[in-house]
Amino acid sequence: MNKGKKLWETSKKIIPNGNLLLSKHPDLYLPNKWPTYFSKANKIFVWDLDNVKYTDFIFSVGTNTLGYCNKNIDNAVIANIRNSNMATFNCPEESKLAKEMLKIHKWAGMVKYARTGAEANAIAIRIARCSVNKKNIAICGYHGWHDWYMAANIGKNDNLSEHLLKGIGYKGIPNYLKDSVHPFNYNDLNSFKKLIKYRNIGIVIMEVARSVSINVKFLREVRNLCNKNNIILIFDECTSGFREYFGGLHLKYNVIPDLAMFGKALGNGYAINTIVGKKNIMIKSEQSFISSTFWTERVGYTAALQTLTEMKKNKSWEKISKMGRFIKKKWAEIAKKNSIKIKIQGLDAIPSFIFLENHLIYKTFLTQEMLKKKYLATNFIFISTEHKKEFVLKYLKNIDYIFKKISNSIKANINPKDLIDTEISSSSFKRLN
């Protein structure tokens, strides 16, 4: 038994669910076979606890757009750590970062911070509720684990099954939050209008785009309806921000929210999320209480400031989107060549595909075979600037080889389950958008 597998068996006994993030749970990738833990990472390479080196074509959960261990960012962080990460006084970097975020988002007037995306979403909801009398919320996307969001599942309907997982329980969520949160479908304006008419909606929070192509007309209609009905519109760009466009998708398409959140790519692996918003809304949060000790440490702010500098210098959003388009094109060619039916989707910087038949089985097989070749790979990639053409071409050659094996197995009428030597991987998040 390798060290990672051995440690995972221990972790399951002492940590609920075994780890702290669903998206890094080994059952999503290759049950009983996934290395699970890393010892180090650099650029696009990851080493497991047995010091086996892998080329990473999953790339965490999209936190390291500029690659693992970016020297300029790490050096800036290390230099500030030497001057202490915490003190009685506040760190000046929080003010410097606020100025930078407001330069990028000229429509906004104030900034708050968090360390995680779920926190940032919860803060945005609290701020919005300070400005509206109608407290019910309409959602379109994944916005974390807090009570306000998970309350959508209270009752008979599994309202979050379309963009989280089927059967997500609401144990621990107060029943009085029932009917306070209502999902709507991306591109379905009628469902959105019905919520406004019948559900006393005061806040709309949504991802601008994720799995499907962005629909600017739909976003503009949502914005107009929010204006007409005195509803605060929040864009959750914790994932999409700083990938296809510097700052966020909403800037590219000029659909301006009242509040927006950014995270993941912003700190290139360091914990930092920002909430930016219109000043007349943000200022009212001073009447509430939003505070946390470790929001005042300086590492996240330092990393974000240097990350923004590196992004601007390298135009990272253009590079990763271009590479994502290339990979999508090649996936389509490889699938057609091998007569495998897939659906390609996602932002160019976060390309993904699904097998139209036996998806989970073939996804598991792909991950299994790529791992044998020392690749961390599945049916999606968070592209980084370190995914150079030379690495991508080698990756695609292996994808072609695996698709050919799937094609041959279909021709030979082999049971798809016979292709894998472990359990079938679990479903990941689904998306309303």
SSE layout:
Elements: H1 3-14, E1 38-42, E2 45-48, E3 53-57, H2 71-81, H3 93-104, E4 110-114, H4 117-129, E5 136-140, H5 147-150, E6 181-183, H6 189-198, E7 201-206, H7 216-228, E8 232-237, H8 249-253, E9 259-262, E10 273-277, H9 279-282, H10 299-314, H11 316-337, E11 342-345, E12 352-355, H12 359-372, E13 375-377, H13 389-411
Parallel strand pairs: 3-13, 5-6, 5-7, 7-8, 8-9
Antiparallel strand pairs: 1-2, 2-3, 4-10, 9-10, 11-12
Summarize the structure.
The chain has two domains: 3-69 and 315-419, Alpha-Beta Complex (Aspartate Aminotransferase, domain 1), CATH 3.90.1150; 71-314, Aspartate Aminotransferase, domain 2, CATH 3.40.640. It is 37% helix and 14% strand.
